[in-house]
Specification:
Blueprint (H helix, E strand, L loop, with lengths): L1 H22 L60 E6 L12 E8 L9 E7 L4 E5 L13 E9 L12 E9 L3 E5 L1 E2 L3
Parallel strand pairs: 1-7
Antiparallel strand pairs: 1-4, 2-3, 2-5, 5-6
Length: 191
């Protein structure tokens, strides 16, 4: 008897759910509404890196800083098209330790040396010296890079920045400014 009540209750809930769903269906009846009088043609919007729902807000444009940001006026942002260029060199003494196809990570951080990078680039290296360029497209937040930064590089054997293999080589940090260029020489390990 109890089983009949349970089955009846389940059937009743299913009927009510279907009835509720049918109330949410809408159909248009009657004539088609007229087009807007001031209609504009559709525009194609292309998603750029660092845009959309996950984009971070741009820094204040009036020269003031948000509370909680540790950036100084020297680290203010520069124009969006500004870049820093660089060259990474491999000393002849370490040439035997390099194999084509290794990964070079180029990382920029604020001059204060904060752990979080402001920009990064990954390059597969076949020959040295390696030339690179960091700009807004390499920004971690999709915004213009700070005017002053430090650049570090790591030549990684396994292509994983998080691991430290004995054969990995590093370089930097070197101070850099947007519009300028730097030269970084690799050294063995973290020496």
């Amino acid at each position: 008897m109890m089983n009949k009540f349970v089955r009846s209750g389940v059937i009743l809930l299913a009927v009510l759910a279907l009835a509720a769903c049918s109330r949410n269906e809408y159909s248009m009846k009657g004539p088609v509404p007229p087009a807007p009088k001031n209609a504009k043609p559709a525009q194609r919007i292309e998603k750029q890196p660092g845009t959309g729902m996950n984009a971070m807000p741009a820094p204040p444009s009036n020269g003031q800083q948000d509370q909680g940001q540790g950036q100084s006026q020297a680290a203010s942002t520069a124009p969006k098209d500004a870049v820093v260029k660089g060259t990474v060199k491999l000393p002849p003494a370490l040439a035997a330790d390099f194999k084509p196809g290794e990964t070079l990570f180029v990382v920029a951080r604020t001059p204060a040396g904060e752990a979080a990078p402001v920009a990064a680039k990954k390059i597969v290296v076949n020959v040295f010296p390696v030339e690179f360029q960091l700009g807004q497209e390499d920004s971690m937040m999709g915004s213009a890079l700070p005017a002053n930064m430090q650049i570090l590089v790591k030549l990684d054997k396994d292509g994983n920045l998080a691991t430290n293999d004995p054969g990995d080589m590093t370089g930097g940090p070197v101070d850099a400014t947007l519009g300028g260029s730097v030269v970084i020489t690799l050294r063995k390990g973290d020496k």
